[in-house]
Write a structure and sequence with these properties.
globular; 425 residues; alpha/beta; 10 helices; 32% helix; 8-stranded mixed sheet; 4-stranded mixed sheet
Length: 425
Amino acid sequence: MSNIPMKIGFSKSDITPSPGVTLGGYAGYRPCSGTHDPLYCKVVVLEQEELRYCLMVLDLVCVDEALYRRIARAVAALGIEPQRLIVSAIHTHASPQGVISSEGALAKVNCSAEEGYPEFLAYMETVIHQAEVACQTAVESLETFQVRTAKSSTPPVGSERHTGDTPGGDLTVIQFKTESNKLLTLYNFPCHPTVLGPDNSLASADFVGGIEDLLEGDMAMFLNSAAGDISTRFTRQESSFAECVRMGQIAAKHVQAALGDLPFAQPTPLKGIHTTVTLKPRPIVSVDIAEAELQERTAKWEAAKDAGADATSLRLLKTFVEGAWVNLEFAKSMVGIQQLDLPVTVFTFAGLEFSTIPGELFSTLQPEGLSIIAYANGYFRYICPEEAYEANHYEAMAAIAARGGGELLIQEIQQLRQQLQDNHS
C-alpha cells in the first residue's frame, strides 16, 4: 500500500420526470402528473491507489442490469470500471422504475406498462446522461477526507409488513468530512419508502426526501437495506406528504443521534470482491392455474371491499392480487430460463462490511454484522427465505428465484466475506 492519500468527490443531478412518464412500484399504468419533491441521481467517487470506485444512488424504484450496463458504459471514460461501480435505487414508489430491458423472458414482468413507454424510454436516456454528469462533477471535486462511522437500531419508520412486528437489522451511518469541510452522510437501513400509495401521481422520494432535508451537510444518500419484508404498512398514520415529513423527521433524528459527537479519523483502505452468484429460477405453473389463482385472489379483495374492510387489510389483500398477477406473467414469459446470474459485490471500508444485493432481500436473511445495499446492479425482485414460501406470502409469489435461493445466496456471500478476510489477513 502506497502513501498516496485516499480522495473523495460527490455530486448530484436532477432526474425528476416530466408529466406523462410512467411511475412504477404499483400495478397498472400510472403517469406522473407533476412533482412534489425532486428526484436525484447522487454519486460518490472514491479514489484509492489511482483506482476509482463509484457508488451511485438513483431515486427510482429499481435498477435493472440493462440500465446498470448503460450507466457503466457512460462513466467508463472517467476511469470507473464496471466491477468498481455500484448503482442502487432507494425504491420509492413515487418514481419511475429503472427497467429498460425489453429482451428476455423477465422483461414483461419488470418492464413498465406499454402505454406511455416511449416517454419512459426517453426519460431513461435523461437518467443515463445525468448519471454521467454527476460522475464527472464528483471526479472533478476529488479531495482528501476524514471519516466517522456509527451503528444503531433501525429507525422506527417501518415494521414487518405481514405482522407489524418490530424489524431487526441495523442503522449504519458513514459521514465524510473533506479537506474543504464539505460533509457527506451515507445512511443505510431497511424499509420500503411507501408512505405514498397508488393513488399518488406526483414524483417524490417519499419519506427519504424528508430525511435528507433535515440532515446537516452538503449531501446525504440513502442506501436501502434488506427491506423485502419491511414497509410502512403498519407504521404510517396516513398516506400523505405530511406523513412523509413526519416519518423523515423520525429517521433523521436517529441518524443524527447515532453519529453524536463521534470523532473523525483517517480512512482505512477499501477492499472488495465482485462476482456472480448463480441461482435456479422458480418452477412455473401453467397459465390456467395462474389465471385461476388470480381470479380467486381478486374475488377475496373485492369481497373485502364490499364488506367495508379497513384500508390496511385491503392493501394487504391487494398485494396478493398483485402477486398473483406477477405469477401469471411468469407463467406466460419465464419458460426457457435455465439460471439466474446475480451480480454481487462484497467490500469492507472504515471497519464496516457491506454486500450488494440485486433485489429485495428479506431482513431475516441478513447476516449479522453485514450491511446490505439492496436494489443494486440489477433487479431480481424478491429474495425470500423458506418461511415466506411456507406462508405463501405475496413476496414469494412474486419471486423469480426458486425456493431456497435466498439461503443459497447468503451462503455464497458469507463465503465471500471469509475470502475477503483471508486475502487481507
